[in-house]
Amino acid sequence: xxxxxxxxxxxxxxxxxxxxxxxxxxxxxxxxxxxxxxxxxxxxxxxxxxxxxxxxxxxxxxxxxxxxxxxxxxxxxxxxxxxxxxxxxxxxxxxxxxxxxxxxxxxxxxxxxxxxxxxxxxxxxxxxxxxxxxxxxxxxxxxxxxxxxxxxxxxxxxxxxxxxxxxxxxxxxxxxxxxxxxxxxxxxxxxxxxxxxxxxxxxxxxxxxxxxxxxxxxxxxxxxxxxxxxxxxxxxxxxxxxxxxxxxxxxxxxxxxxxxxxxxxxxxxxxxxxxxxxxxxxxxxxxxxxxxxxxxxxxxxxxxxxxxxxxxxxxxxxxxxxxxxxxxxxxxxxxxxxxxxxxxxxxxxxxxxxxxxxxxxxxxxxxxxxxxxxxxxxxxxxxxxxxxxxxxxxxxxxxxxxxxxxxxxxxxxxxxxxxxxxxxxxxxxxxxxxxxxxxxxxxxxxxxxxxxxxxxxxxxxxxxxxxxxxxxxxxxxxxxxxxxxxxxxxxxxxxxxxxxxxxxxxxxxxxxxxxxxxxxxxxxxxxxxxxxxxxxxxxxxxxxxxxxxxxxxxxxxxxxxxxxxxxxxxxxxxxxxxxxxxxxxxxxxxxxxxxxxxxxxxxxxxxxxxxxxxxxxxxxxxxxxxxxxxxxxxxxxxxxxxxxxxxxxxxxxxxxxxxxxxxxxxxxxxxxxxxxxxxxxxxxxxxxxxxxxxxxxxxxxxxxxxxxxxxxxxxxxxxxxxxxxxxxxxxxxxxxxxxxxxxxxxxxxxxxxxxxxxxxxxxxxxxxxxxxxxxxxxxxxxxxxxxxxxxxxxxxxxxxxxxxxxxxxxxxxxxxxxxxxxxxxxxxxxxxxxxxxxxxxxxxxxxxxxxxxxxxxxxxxxxxxxxxxxxxxxxxxxxxxxxxxxxxxxxxxxxxxxxxxxxxxxxxxxxxxxxxxxxxxxxxxxxxxxxxxxxxxxxxxxxxxxxxxxxxxxxxxxxxxxxxxxxxxxxxxxxxxxxxxxxxxxxxxxxxxxxxxxxxxxxxxxxxxxxxxxx
Amino acid sequence: xxxxxxxxxxxxxxxxxxxxxxxxxxxxxxxxxxxxxxxxxxxxxxxxxxxxxxxxxxxxxxxxxxxxxxxxxxxxxxxxxxxxxxxxxxxxxxxxxxxxxxxxxxxxxxxxxxxxxxxxxxxxxxxxxxxxxxxxxxxxxxxxxxxxxxxxxxxxxxxxxxxxxxxxxxxxxxxxxxxxxxxxxxxxxxxxxxxxxxxx
Lengths: 1015, 200
Known about the structure:
The complex is a heterodimer. By secondary structure, chain A is α+β, with helices and mostly antiparallel strands. Among the domains of chain A are: 12-127, 2Fe-2S iron-sulphur cluster binding domain, sarcosine oxidase, alpha subunit, N-terminal domain (Ubiquitin-like (UB roll), Roll); 179-306 and 433-492, FAD/NAD(P)-binding domain (3-Layer(bba) Sandwich), CATH 3.50.50.60; 916-1014, Aminomethyltransferase beta-barrel domains (Elongation Factor Tu (Ef-tu), domain 3), CATH 2.40.30. Chain A contains 26 helices and 52 strands. In chain A, the strands form 14 sheets. A six-stranded mixed beta sheet of chain A has the order 43-44-45-42-36-46. A six-stranded antiparallel barrel of chain A has the order 47-50-49-48-51-52. The longest helix of chain A has 16 residues, at 477-492. In chain A, 55% of the residues are buried. In chain B, 28% of the residues lie in helices and 32% in strands. Chain B has two domains: 13-36 and 116-199, 2-Layer Sandwich (Gyrase A, domain 2); 37-113, Aminomethyltransferase beta-barrel domains (Alpha-Beta Plaits, 2-Layer Sandwich). Chain B has six helices and ten strands, in the order ααββαβββαββαβββα. In chain B, the strands form two sheets. Chain B has a five-stranded antiparallel beta sheet with strand order 1-7-10-9-8. Chain B has a five-stranded antiparallel beta sheet with strand order 3-4-5-2-6. By secondary structure, chain B is α+β, with helices and mostly antiparallel strands. The chains are: A alpha+beta, B alpha+beta. At the A-B interface, strand 8, strand 33 and helix 23 of A face helix 1, helix 2, strand 2, strand 6 and helix 6 of B.
C-alpha cells in the first residue's frame, strides 16, 4: 500500500504515447487521469481505471512472472482474482506486500510493483535451470527425496526448497496499515455485480429492501464491462452504469466495490474484505487500508459469475497465452490490445466471440482452432467477417517462444500439422460456475452435463441463499438478467416489476476438451502434444504429475490435490482444477459426478491477517483494565505487570535505583518497618445477598461461612468438584443477608461463573443474588507497624479503629465524609494491616491522600513483587500454589475443611490419592549457602540422586529475595511436607542449568505466632 | 479533606480522554463521557417478582418488564440486563435518590450500588449507528431495534450495555470503569472509520 501521493493530473498525450498497446479509444478507463507507476524500476504510464495487469499489457510487457517450481516464464493469463501467474510484490519497505494479483490490483499513482521469485532478474532467472532437472522433480518429489538425514530437513532442505520455490517475501517490519471493521445487517446481500446481480439489486432496491451489493472487482458491473453485448438500445456497459447510478441514488442500497465476500459461516454470517486503498483517496487521506465486513443478511443472492477454464496442451503456459474472456476484457474494458497477431483455441462457442473483439482492436486473427468437429452456423457466423482460418476438429499441440509466444503448432482432423506465427493465443475451455461460497458450509456441488461443469443442485438450495446468473450455469446474458430478477422477486415476495429490454443472447455450446490426448487426429499420424501440459499453472502441476499421483495410488481428488498441490495457492486452481478432475475421472473410469469436486473452504481470496485482527494488535491485542489510581501510579514511576487483563504496579522505581530488586526490597522493608500502601482494587469482589446467602456460601467454601458474625471477615477456600483447590479469598459479612467475598485477581471471572453455575444449576431453590462489584470499588491495603496511624488520619473521624471496636478480621461500612466506604482489618503481609474501599471514582483521590497523610511515616507505595515477598515470608499461598493440582490439605488448610457440613469438592477431596500422606505439601525452602539463589520451577531431588522423574520429590512454587531473612527464600510442595523440615535436598533446575542445595524449613519465615498482626 | 475527596475524577478523565473523540465532530458525531449517574443493580428476590413490580408501580409509577427493555421516566429508568435483573438509573442529584430503593424494595430485591462501576458514554448524531456497527454485533437499525430495547453485548471484547434515548439518534453506552481507556481506543478507531466512509 505505497499509495503515498495524491492524484496529480498529467498531460494525457505523453502518457498515451508511452503505451504502445493502448487503443486510441474505448474502454472504461479515465483518459483524463493519467497515472505513472514503477515496474521493476521502470517508470511507466497508464490511466485511472487500469488494473496493474492492463497497465503492463498497455506498455507491451508480457513477461511478468516466473513459475513456482520450474521458474518458467509466465505472462498475464486472466483478468480477475483467478489469476495463477501474475503475482507481484507491491510497495517498498514496510509497505511491501507480496503475491498481489496484478489482475485484481487497481492501479494508483506512484504504485511500485516488482516481479518476484526470479534471480537475478525476471528476464534471466537462474532458477529456470530447475526445468532441466524436471524429470527429478515430479509431484511429491520432496516427500521422497528429502527423507534423510532427518536433521537436515529444518536447516537445509526446507530453506532451500522455500528459497527456490517460494513466492514473494513479506516485509519483516511491523505492518504500517490499519484495518477497519463493520457489522452489516441487511435484508439482502448480493454477491457479484454482473448482469444477474445488478438486475436483482434494481428490483429489490426499488422494493425498498436494505441491500448490500458487493463485488470483488474495483469496478462494478462484472462481465458487462468486458463485453460488447447489448441490452435494449444500450451497450451492456452503459446499461450497467445506468443501473449503478440508480442504485447509488437509493439510500437503502450500499454499493461496495473491491469487496470480496471471502467466507460463509454459521448463523447466515458472511465475511467480506474491502480494499480501501488504491482507490480515489490518497494515503494521506486514508486511515484504513482495508475493512472487514461482518455481514448478517436475511437473504443472499449469489451472482458470483463463472471462471473460464484453461485448456491443457503442451506448452500451454507461455506468456501470450491467455483466457479468451480475459482478452475481451483487456480490449473492451481497458482499451488494451494484448497482442498483435492472434489465434483462438477453444472447445466451446464462447471462444468464438473473441474474434470480432480482436478484429475491432486491430489485432490480426490468423486462426480459430476448435476441437469440435462441428459447430452451429450461428457460431461460424461469428467468424464470417474475419480472415482467420477456421480449423474444426483441430487442436494446438505445441508452442514456441521462451519469453513470449512466437508460434503455435496445430494438428487438424487428419493429423496434419500447421504452424502459425502468433504472439497471442486466446484459449477457452468452457466455464466453471463460481460456487465456492455456497460450499463453505458443506454444500456439495453436482456435475451438470449441459454446461460440462459443477454447479449447486437446484433442489439443494442453501437456506436463504439463491444462486443466479453464470454461477447457476445461466451463461447467456438474457438468462442471467432474468435469473437475477426472479431471485429478487422471491426475496421481495412480489412479482418482478423491472421490465428487461431485449438482450443479445450468446451461444454456449461446449464439448469439453479435458486433456489433449498424446496422439491426436482422426487419422493419427503420430503427432504428439509436445512440451509440458500444465493443469495448474500456479503450482506447476502437469498432466503427467496427476497421472503419476494416480499410479502411486492416489485416486481421490482430495488426496491428489494434497500430493500434487493442484488446486492450492492463491488462485485455488480456479482455471485448471476441473481439467485435473476430468483426468482423474478418466483414470478411475468413472463419470465426473462420481469423482466429485474439491471442497472449497474460506477464504475465497487471500486475506491479510491484519484485516482479521482489526484494531486488536500490539498494545491493544486485547483490552486492558486500569485501576482508578493508574495515573497516580504512573506518576510514581510504577512498572506495570499484566495480571489477567489488569495492569498492576509491579514496583515503583525511586531515583537512584538501577534494578527491580532494589525497588522491591526497599518496598518490602518499608512495610515491615513502617507502612506501605498497595492497590488491591484488582482482586475480585462479589456482592452476595439474599436470605440464603450464608447457606449458599457455606456450600461453596470448605469452612463455615454461616457462622461469620456481622462486621467480621473470614478467610475461606473453595474447591472444585474434583476436590482440588480452586481459589481462596475472604468473605466479609455486612449484614445478616449480605456478604462481599473476594477472589484472586486472575480467578475473578471464573469464580463469578462458578457461583452462577452453583446457583442456577445446583441450587436454584436458594434465595441468593450475586453480582460483581470489582468495578465499583477501589481498594487499598495499608500495611505495616504504622498502618494504624496512617489509617487513623484518613478515617479516624468517621470510624473507631481501636482494637476493641475494630479488631483483627473486622469489617465495617461507613460514610467517609459523605462517601460510602468500607474498611477491613485483614492482612496478606503478616503485618498489622487494613484495607479501605471507596467507589472507584474516588480511588485515585484516596490513594493520593494516603501517600500525603502517611508522609510522617515515610509511607511507601508497593507493588505486586513486594506483595509477593511479604506473602512468601509469611507463608501465604497464592497463584503459584493454587494451580489446580493442590488440595486444601496440601496447602495446609486441611484443618479448615468442615466435617459438619457439605460443600463442593468435599467427597472427591477424600479420594485415596488426594489424602495420601506422601502427597507433596507446602513447605518453606532456603539455600544452605546464604548467597545461593534458586528459581521457582526447580525440582526437589534427594541429595546424591540422579535427576530423573522417579526421584523427583516435588518442586519450588514461589521464590523471592527476603530482606527479613537476608537470602532468597521460597515456598514449595514436597513429598512428606513438614516431616522433612530440616532436611537438605537439591533444587534441580535444568531449564536454567542450576543445581542448588537447599534446606526444607517452615513455610512461615516471619512471625509464626502472628504477634505482628495485632501489634 | 472534603475537596480532595470530591475531586472530579470524571472531569479529569473526560479531559484526558477527549483526544480520542476529537475528530468525532468531523464525522457529525457528538461523543461525551457523562458525569456519574446513580446506578444500582436490582435483582429480584426469589418468588418476589410480582411484589417487586407492584412496589415499583406504587413508589415510582414504573411498569417493570422482565426483558431487555428500558422502562421508566427521565428521573428513573430500569434497564433489563438479564432474567430478574435490572440496572436502575437516575440522575446523581435526583430528588428521589435511588438509594431509597433499598428501603422501598426491602425483602423484594437485592440492591447493589454500581454508580462508580460504569462509565457512561453518550454518542449522538446520524452516524451513531455506523459508529457502533464497527464494534457491536447487534443490529441497531429500526425496525429490528426498538427504541425501548436494551443491548447487553460486547464491543472490542469489552462488555457494554447500550440503550437509545432519542431519534437523533442518541445512544448511551455503559462500559465497565476499568476498560475505559481500551474502549476509548476502539471508539477512536471507529470514528476514523466513519470519517473515511464519508470521504469516499
